[in-house]
Amino acid sequence: MSLQFNPYAAQILEAFQRVGLNKGQAYQPDQIFQALDQLTGSAYDRDVATQIYEQCTPNQRGQVQIEEFSQVLISADALLKKKIQDSERQIQQIVDDSKDCQRNIQEIQYTQQQNQNGIDTDSQLHLIIKSASGITQDFIQSQVSISVDNNEQIAQQSGRDKSQAIFNHQLGFQIKTGKENVTLSLFIYDQNQKKSLVGQAKIDLSQLQDQQQHSLQLQLQNDRQQFTTPTIQFDVHWIYNKLKYYKEMIQKYEMDIYQHNNDIEDYKRDLFIVQQPFMDNNQRQNLQSSLKPQTSSKLQTNSALFYQQQQNQPSIYKPTPPQQSFRQNQIDIPQQNQAEATEELSDEIYYGFILYLLMIVLSLFQCFARPAYVDIILGILYLLIIFRDCFTPEYLKFVGAITVFTIVLDIFWISIYKNWWNGTDKTLPTWGEAGDPIVRITIVFCIFNMIVKTALCYIIFHYYKAAQSNQVLKFKAWEFEFQIGILKQNLFTSDKRLLS
């Protein structure tokens, strides 16, 4: 087995030296790949070789030290062995969990009791309230009230991270019909202990009939049924038929075991590719004959995951009783009330925000000598993209057009005063000759503003592309955080107010 073969640095360097690559020297990737071909006796897998090379630090000529390349080979060998061992442990854990499910089925198949709605009499809805984020108001304490029809329970805030309230509170409710109204209400307390409602969200039990645990993030609605910025993150799990649940879990475990076995075979093939240049012929032939034929596409995604320092292992469902099963993060489903694609472009949003603030400040100074009110209005229109979530292609085109229009106005204004700068007549209608330094400073500010607005045209273009692709962006500045691209509101709401 290749798991018992452990190549070490001196062995690898000695093999490279046999084919002309000496210690202390740097080589181009083609030279290293050709050396691997010679050591293997056939064409070495270029995908694997390229991935190993990309983990090295090349010099300005694209060359890497042979010692560093050898060390990355050793790291790849160790990482693949660890993946094989982890997968084998996961298979054993899944086998044990499957046996637990089988025992549970034997215990309940003759004792299961259901009501007239086809729901177990001991059916439970389990919730773990994790956190609430996006709270813009000042608060010192918060709580989440969860009500299932007339049954209400409270999750108290246990910690806080900037504008995010941490709860990590577990609750349970009995479900009888599957049509119960499940409502989550977020309350905050200010310094005077005044309690106020931030918003509410509802859980549709019909979306939980797959009996799997869901990690959800719901956007809250205010008392006018309008979506607001704050969201609540929680896990929810409803098992209404334990017998059906355990049978489905066994089927899933069988699929997981099959997938893990395929992964192990892929890892072994990759490990053989890494090790074979440094084996003797007998070891190479014995190991190659022990590998199973590959049935999937070449290396699938395993090669791409070779040398990542952080491994993304598949999540495993924990069977056991539903109460214990609920505590595990089994499945991540798409967040409700959000766009299809999500991408964080917080840097561009942040820098655009700073540039527009700078433009507003420069425009205010220019108002001493010229009416730069259009620039101020433009800055406000940009701020509405963030604080109003006017992240629509039409609105962004409108803001971009005004930005270009103001640049044209700046050029026109400067052209009027281009002869004044070096002229002898410094008399101004408002300031007289005393206005000379004011106009000079205004012209300088106007030029800086043109440069800033040119950069903003580029940023607005990126926003326009993101809005067309239905992306959700995140704006983060200091302790504030806004999600942009969820509501995509018009400039005015239905009640004709600028801000809700």
UniProtKB/TrEMBL annotation:
Keywords, comma-separated and alphabetical: Calcium, Membrane, Metal-binding, Transmembrane, Transmembrane helix
Keyword presence, Thylakoid: no
Transmembrane domains' residue ranges: 349-366, 398-417, 437-461
GO molecular function: metal ion binding
A family per Pfam: C2
Tree of life domain: Eukaryota
C2 domain residues: 104-218
Entry-linked PANTHER family: 16 KDA PHLOEM PROTEIN 2, C2 DOMAIN-CONTAINING
Protein's recorded name: C2 domain-containing protein
Provenance organism: Paramecium sonneborni
